């Protein structure tokens, strides 16, 4: 090889054939400590426990680390050493976009994120799309505990979470003995809606509910499906409605209940259309969520029905849009729900017995509920 060609290789690629140029080794925690003349614990504290160092010493450690190219402690090695991942897992059996689209879910997610921020830990979303049986995402999740958000009692992802040797907190559902849970008193909250409608004089009612099981059903619901619902919240709300209206002389077996698998305004509208087409005598639609109620209001407008003159509509959740339009609904503190679940999970190591946190709800009577029209008013009214 000619000297000119060798010189070209050296200048072009930075090495001499057969004799690579030595490159600087990446700094390590030990070499950084030696450079500073401090212990490795001191360097580690500059990153992981800054309160243990004076501001001046921490600044000197970080500046020297930047100068030497030290990237900081290896988080994987740290998790192996401390057996802590530094993150909370949120399991929701919905598509990932649901957590950022559904108003109630957004509030819960924000509250949980705030609790994680306060504790200095991360948040790892573990979405499990409906119908998917693969629980590998649960097994792979590097988290110190799980918050399970509103899943059916027979969901395989829930079973996988409970098999992990980490603490678990459930938001809303299911109710499992021995497991921490945060949520409202659904039965009492829905009873308040029922009593409000009974006092107004409604007896011809219909119900729009969210999904009752993992198997899709977009239609009328039998009594058997209601009583065997795997989504405990929906089951409790239907049972509370049945009890309250039975006391008012309404035979629950004759009350039409329509279920929707997907939770969207459009599905609420189609559910209302299906129920009212088959039961035009209904004077009040009770929806187990505000999203379904917004759809029901859209369908009422499409049909030319006056709300509440021709049709009363109620919801549940108290989302911002529902409050803006004056929907009669039950308000629940969704942000506080997420925050309480996070705090409960992060403090689980300090307790030996499970804890149940019941959040307050409030019936907010708006512009969408009123007394039913009489037969004469329906015939001669505007």
Automatic annotation (TrEMBL):
Keywords: DNA-binding, Transcription, Transcription regulation. SMART domains: HTH_LACI. GO terms for molecular function: DNA-binding transcription factor activity; transcription cis-regulatory region binding. PROSITE patterns: HTH_LACI_2 (PS50932). Residues 27-82 form the HTH lacI-type domain. The keyword Membrane does not apply. SUPFAM superfamilies: lambda repressor-like DNA-binding domains, Periplasmic binding protein-like I. It holds the Pfam family Peripla_BP_3. This is Transcriptional regulator, LacI family.
């Amino acid at each position: 090889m000619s000297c000119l060609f060798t010189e070209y290789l050296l200048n072009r690629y930075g090495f001499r054939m057969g004799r690579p140029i030595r490159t600087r080794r990446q700094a390590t925690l030990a070499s950084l400590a030696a450079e500073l003349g401090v212990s490795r614990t001191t360097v580690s504290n500059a990153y992981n426990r800054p309160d243990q160092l004076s501001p001046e010493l921490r600044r000197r450690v970080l500046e020297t680390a930047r100068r030497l190219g030290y990237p900081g402690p290896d988080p994987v090695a740290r998790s192996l050493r401390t057996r802590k991942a530094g993150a909370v897992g949120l399991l929701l059996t919905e598509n990932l976009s649901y957590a950022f689209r559904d108003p109630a879910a957004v509030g819960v997610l924000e509250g949980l994120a705030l609790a994680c921020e306060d504790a200095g830990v991360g948040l790892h979303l573990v979405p499990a799309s409906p119908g998917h049986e693969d629980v590998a995402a649960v097994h792979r999740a590097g988290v110190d505990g799980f918050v399970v958000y509103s899943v059916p009692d027979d969901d395989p992802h829930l079973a996988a979470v409970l098999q992990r040797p980490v603490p678990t907190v459930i938001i809303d559902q299911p109710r499992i003995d021995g497991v921490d849970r945060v949520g409202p008193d659904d039965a009492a909250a829905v009873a308040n809606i029922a009593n409000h409608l009974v006092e107004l004089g409604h007896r011809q009612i219909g119900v729009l509910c969210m999904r009752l099981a993992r198997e899709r059903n977009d239609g009328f619901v039998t009594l058997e499906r209601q009583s065997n619902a795997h989504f405990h919240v929906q089951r409790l709300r239907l049972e509370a409605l049945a009890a309250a209206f039975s006391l008012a002389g309404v035979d629950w077996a004759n009350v039409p209940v329509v279920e929707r698998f997907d939770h969207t305004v459009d599905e609420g509208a189609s559910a209302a259309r299906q129920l009212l087409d088959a039961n035009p005598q209904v004077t009040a639609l009770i929806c187990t969520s505000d999203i379904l109620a917004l759809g029901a209001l859209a369908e009422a407008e499409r049909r030319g029905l006056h709300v509440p003159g021709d049709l009363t509509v109620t919801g549940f959740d108290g989302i911002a849009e529902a409050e803006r339009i004056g929907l009669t609904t039950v308000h629940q503190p969704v942000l506080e729900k997420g925050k309480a679940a996070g705090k409960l999970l992060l403090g689980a190591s300090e307790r030996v017995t499970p804890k149940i946190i019941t959040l307050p709800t409030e019936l907010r009577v708006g512009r969408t509920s009123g007394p039913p029209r009489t037969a004469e008013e329906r015939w001669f009214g505007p």
